[in-house]
Amino acid sequence: MRKRLIVSAASALSLFLAVPASATDFQPGAAGAGDSYYPTYGNGGYRVSHYDIRLKYQPATDELEGTTTILATATENLSRFNLDFALNVQEVRVNGRPATFATSGEQELEITPARPLAKGGQATVVVRYKGVPSTVKKYGFTAWLRTPDGAVAAGEPESAWWWFPSNDHPSDKATFDVSVQVPDGNQVISNGILTGATSQAGWTRYSWRENKPQATYLATLAVGKFDVTTDTTPSGLPVYNAYSKDLGENADAARASVERTGELVDWLSGYFGDYPFSSVGGYVPNVKTGFALETQTRVFYSPRQFARGTNTSVVVHELAHQWYGDSVSVSHWSDIWLNEGFARYAQFLWSEHENEGTAQELADYVYASHPADDAFWSVKPGDPGAADQFSNAVYDRGAVAIQALRNAVGDDAFFRILKGWPAEHRYGNATVQDFQAYAEKISGKKLGDLFTTWLFTAAKPATGPAPAGAASLAPGADAGRADGQLPVEPKSWKKIQETNSLHDAEH
Ligand SMILES: [Zn+2]
Description:
- The chain is α+β, with helices and mostly antiparallel strands and about 500 residues long.
- The protein has helices spanning about 1-15, 250-260, 260-270, 310-325, 335-355, 360-370, 390-425, 430-445, 450-455, 475-480, 495-500, and strands at about 25-30, 45-60, 65-75, 80-85, 90-95, 95-100, 100-105, 110, 120-130, 145, 150-155, 175-185, 185-190, 195-200, 205-215, 220-225, 225-230, 240-245, 280-285, 290-295, 300, 330, 430.
- The protein is globular and about 70 Å long.
- The chain binds zinc ion.
């Protein structure tokens, strides 16, 4: 009875307060960016231009507190909008006024500003929060990796939720300022340029700036005790590398690999054009996981990548992503071949440069070593599905597809495509279809059949990626194997495969 009375009163009140017709145009923004692989990742109704992330972190207890300020522009009339985030939120302000907020789903933070946001209007969103990120599990895992002396945030496709609220989808890129206070004696690594490190009352604040658009999953953070090396490349690009002090017997192999970053970025520039960012480097924290990740300008490497000695191949792979993945980012996660196919192909080119097997030999080897009934061929690199987004086929078959393209258009057009593409879409986003159109424009050839065969068919192509005028490998690697036709394993093959734990995602 009491309840009914309250309901009636509320209904009467809402009638009485009926809003003007124009205000009904204000609707909640979507809870996802429209990505079919990850429907709730990212959000709709606004774009972010900048993240200012200001944190305080205590390595001993893993306690993180922070304030993130987001500069956004509404792309529709918004009564409400979402961010993606996993820690506990204390306060949200939008354009200075306190906003109400609620959580829903795994990582949705629903924000209702005091005044609705009009399409085209700017919003400054301030979120205050704290938590112990390593204890927060979403979809059964945490991308916050604890180390003996601190922690690391690195993961694909999700890692932001554990340290800053965001529109967590690569289609919405922004610049970043990351400023983190840690107890004196600890260091903070992030993307871009270190703009300051000042100590006060026992705490040191490190400030980093990435001044070029960056996808949220490419933002990284590490706190710990590191040996740092700095230098500039011959072209004047600042290099900043960092190695955890407790890497043990992997320390020297890690250094002997990552210290070649400047050389390798210059070498890759010969194929991909000018390096797109204002700094470069890598860091090797003492994590247990085995993968590496192309975090923008500052690559994350697991020490396990160097457990069997130096590995320049993985450095080449992650640096290639700075063009293919970081500067030119996927529009949807289904476009992952634009990242991994090309990063793997860069390893093929490095192998060729090192006289450890040509790209053609590697492509032939991949083609022949997987029989037609191997599940490898059931994955379509051009649209692998979320479950197979980081499967070997996206990398290896993806790179063979690029060799097939090279053979179809010839070296001259191929290398113009390889270098022209990152310039065409610099700091932006693109789809596999955009790439096909670009390759057709540059080569003057119709490539629909080639793309369908190598990227969009769940079966082994009938013939291998043969160069013009050469006989292709016998159809069906089963036959190839039985006849002893399996090509000799290229010298670089094992090292290339060792990088396959690159994205052994936690889920
Ligand atoms: Zn990769």
